[in-house]
């Protein structure tokens, strides 16, 4: 059974619901995967209980380095700091990463008005993501733009 670590922001109801939706779909498509989802780990992520930084780091890092693959949700106004850290650990340990970046502002790269607007201060119509973090993903994995692409990419990796 392949072990997958699901790296994603997990603090708002919206984030938790999105994570549950994605993971439920993955478990349905690939029941043989053992998917570790930090928000499901109540020992460290019950926000009414107590877990200090070392407990959280040890618990999640142990699961991360035991994984065969990391799925990293890159969406948000910036890449979540915890997700970026998890990507760094995965890179250092040689664990492949599939980054999921669904921000619709990435569309329109062939629209000349949008491209020309880049020359005017404050008129960037595209979303920016930290290139160092994206580079770490791409050096040992791939960035996909949809849930469908994620499901397909996992299927391709399971064939190997």
Automatic annotation (TrEMBL):
Coiled-coil positions: none
Stored InterPro entries: 2'-dNMP_N-hydrolase, Nucleoside_deoxyribTrfase
BP terms from Gene Ontology: deoxyribonucleoside monophosphate catabolic process
UniProt GO MF annotations: 5-hydroxymethyl-dUMP N-hydrolase activity
Family annotation (PANTHER family): 2'-DEOXYNUCLEOSIDE 5'-PHOSPHATE N-HYDROLASE 1
Protein name: Nucleoside 2-deoxyribosyltransferase
């Amino acid at each position: 059974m392949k072990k997958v670590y699901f790296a994603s922001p997990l603090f708002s109801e919206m984030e938790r619901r999105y994570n549950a939706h994605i993971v439920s779909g993955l478990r349905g498509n690939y029941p043989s995967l053992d998917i570790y989802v930090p928000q499901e780990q109540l020992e460290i992520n019950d926000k009414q209980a107590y877990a200090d930084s070392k407990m959280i780091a040890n618990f999640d890092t142990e699961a991360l380095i035991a994984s065969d693959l990391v799925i990293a949700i890159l969406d948000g106004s910036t890449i979540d700091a915890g997700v970026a850290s998890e990507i760094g650990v995965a890179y250092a340990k040689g664990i492949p990463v599939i980054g999921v970046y669904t921000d619709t502002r990435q569309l329109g790269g062939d629209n000349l008005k949008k491209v020309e607007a880049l020359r005017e201060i404050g008129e960037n119509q595209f979303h920016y993501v930290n290139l160092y973090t994206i580079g770490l993903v791409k050096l040992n994995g791939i960035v996909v733009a949809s849930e469908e692409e994620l499901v397909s990419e996992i299927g391709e990796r399971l064939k190997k």
